[in-house]
Amino acid sequence: MPRRGPPGSVDLVIEATELTRRYGRTLAVDRLTFTVRPGVVTGFLGPNGAGKTTTLRMVLGLNRPTSGTVTVDGRPFAGLPRGLRHVGALLDAHDVHGGRTARAHLAALAAGNGLPRGRVAEVLAEVGLADAAGRRIDGFSLGMKQRLGIAAALLGDPPVLLFDEPLNGLDPEGVRWVRGLFGRLADEGRTVLVSSHLMREMEQTAEELIVIGRGRLIAAGSLRDFAAGGTPPRVAVRTPDADALVAALTGEGATVRAEDDGSYTVTGLTADRIGDLAFTHRARLYELGPRAASLEEAFMALTEDSVEYATEAAR
Ligand SMILES: Nc1ncnc2c1ncn2[C@@H]1O[C@H](COP(=O)(O)OP(=O)(O)OP(=O)(O)O)[C@@H](O)[C@H]1O
């Protein structure tokens, strides 16, 4: 695939401004403002029902916003002249005609969008389905359907790609493959937006994150900043003299949590202070150092806040 503009070029930006969608009494998307840039994989994260699918459908012009706007390359998707050549999307892996073969499905899509037939074999090979090209889709596993959906998104060789929960149903090898593919697509300068309701799926997938809850923006920024800002500093400790050390640490007001691997996570004291206390209490230390913040915890903390906020706002 051709290389595109350098990361940071502004032409392929997805821009949502005060984007809102109401279904009857449900506010599915609530004044959402965000920017998705090319050259990095951006994770679109939120619990079930947060409004991710509704937002992606509005980007694609499949749902109309109740108010606000969302544009790709400065224009609503419907106004883009090149359709599938401009934006490729996987929304629902099950949304395919099961009686067709993978090849026939993609060939119909190519024909309907004025794309060269030769792309079909290329994208099937790219997603690892070359050997299954002649098989009927209704015999496909969910993982194979996800690969087929990704192949369809790639068909027009588009600079902007949207994937809704693409890791669902993939085995560990499939997850590793898809992460590599998304990274490569971003390295080529494309804009890649990937939704998920699981933070742990995003940890090794996305560089940037947009987190929503109940239709609202909760946080946006780099994964690294997100992890750093989400929880107070924590220290990892390993000791064969746990009873003495834990008593000493909690006596100083620290919170100590035992981990599955036999280590402890300490909050509320610096590593220096923990070292001093261990020395005083004759507890041997096998490990003492910073414990990387768990993104899962940061995510839970942030979404909890959004629920509280929503409750307060409703009063
Ligand atoms: N066509 C519709 N009619 C009525 N309500 C809808 C419709 N589509 C979505 N909703 C509601 O809007 C809210 C957001 O749904 P949406 O599917 O966008 O969330 P999501 O973040 O993609 O969730 P999930 O991870 O469960 O797919 C939910 O409360 C949902 O019930």
From TrEMBL:
UniProt KW Nucleotide-binding keyword: yes
Alphabetical keyword list: ATP-binding, Nucleotide-binding, Transport
UniProt domain ABC transporter: residue ranges: 14-239
Domain of life: Bacteria
Classification via SUPFAM superfamilies: P-loop containing nucleoside triphosphate hydrolases
Keyword Transport (UniProt): yes
A single GO molecular function term of this UniProt record: ATP binding
A Pfam family matched in the record: ABC_tran
InterPro entries referenced in this protein's UniProt entry, alphabetically: AAA+_ATPase, ABC_transporter-like_ATP-bd, ABC_transporter-like_CS, P-loop_NTPase
Family: Belongs to the ABC transporter superfamily.
Protein name listed in UniProt: ABC transporter
Organism field: Streptomyces laurentii
